[in-house]
Design brief:
Blueprint (H helix, E strand, L loop, with lengths): L2 H4 L37 H32 L3 H4 L3 H10 L7 H7 L16
Length: 125
């Protein structure tokens, strides 16, 4: 038997296929489901829908988590963010002035009792 005779025998020398005739599509006739390797495609739309739902759920959770962190940042006192800068404080101080020129006029127009006792919180008179 030479190399040319091997290719002419049924089964073409493939191990385990001696005596079996190959079918045109490459699958044996007695194979239960010739499309077994493509069965995953049967539920491809369902799989895609499920993956899309999982991705949307993951995105939703990430957004919720980020919103929670943002809310937490707003609730916390952060000096760098919540306190005015030195420049802003200096600007406000420069706008202040002390003058006694109007004090007498304010006292004349006042309707407060100058003889009243000094208010002390928590003390009842």
């Amino acid at each position: 038997m030479n190399g040319a005779d091997i290719g002419k025998k049924p089964g073409s020398g493939v191990p385990g296929s001696e005596g079996k005739d190959p079918v045109a599509n490459g699958h044996a006739e007695n194979e239960s489901n010739p499309f077994a390797e493509y069965m995953w495609m049967e539920n491809e739309e369902e799989y895609n829908r499920q993956v899309e739902e999982e991705l949307l759920e993951q995105e939703f959770l990430e957004r919720c988590f980020q919103e929670m962190l943002d809310e937490e940042d707003q609730d916390w006192f952060i000096p760098e963010r919540d306190l005015p800068s030195v420049g802003q404080i200096q600007q406000q101080l420069n706008g202040l002035s002390v003058s006694d020129g109007n004090a007498e006029e304010i006292l004349r127009k006042s309707i407060l009792n100058p003889e009243a006792k000094e208010f002390v919180p928590g003390v009842k008179y």
